[in-house]
Amino acid sequence: MGIIYRLALVLAIIGAINWGLIGLFQFDLVATLFGGQDTFLSRTVYTLVGISGLLCIPLLFRAFEEDEVDTVTNDTRNSNAYTNMNYQTEFGEETEFTEEDRKRARELYTDDK
């Protein structure tokens, strides 16, 4: 995510907090901080929050890439920990391993250490 979108997201969150305060407590934090709703600074903050809300619209439709998921890259056994989950033993029969599978697994895991 680019710096512009991050900044827009922060401003949108600030705007959401301000609207929450207005809705719950009838307290406009921006107007209080900058001297009222009609001052230049308050109107600037309102405008920036509105623009940032418009910039955040594409984030709703953005497909997240697999490389954005935090995975363990140093350990090849867990590299697909979040993207390739296998629930086979949880919801069904356990896989039967042959002696050849066990031997191959022992070779793979003992060479790493």
What's this, in brief?
Keywords: Membrane, Transmembrane, Transmembrane helix. By secondary structure, the chain is mostly helical. It has six helices and no strands.
How does the helix and strand content classify structurally?
A: mainly alpha
> What characterizes the major β-sheet?
none
The percent range for strand residues is under 5%
Radius of gyration: 26 Å
Would you list the SSEs in sequence order as H and E? HHHHHH
**How helical, in percent, are the residues?**
55-70%
Strand elements, count: 0
Average pLDDT reading: 80
- Terminal CA distance reads 37 Å
Poorly predicted regions are none
What overall geometry do the principal axes of the alpha carbons give?
rod-shaped
Protein model, in words:
This is DUF378 domain-containing protein. There is one protein chain. The chain is mainly α and 113 residues long. It has a domain at 3-61. It has helices at 3-25, 29-34, 40-55, 57-61, 88-91, 99-111. The longest helix has 23 residues, at 3-25. The chain starts with a helix and ends with a helix. The mean pLDDT is 80.
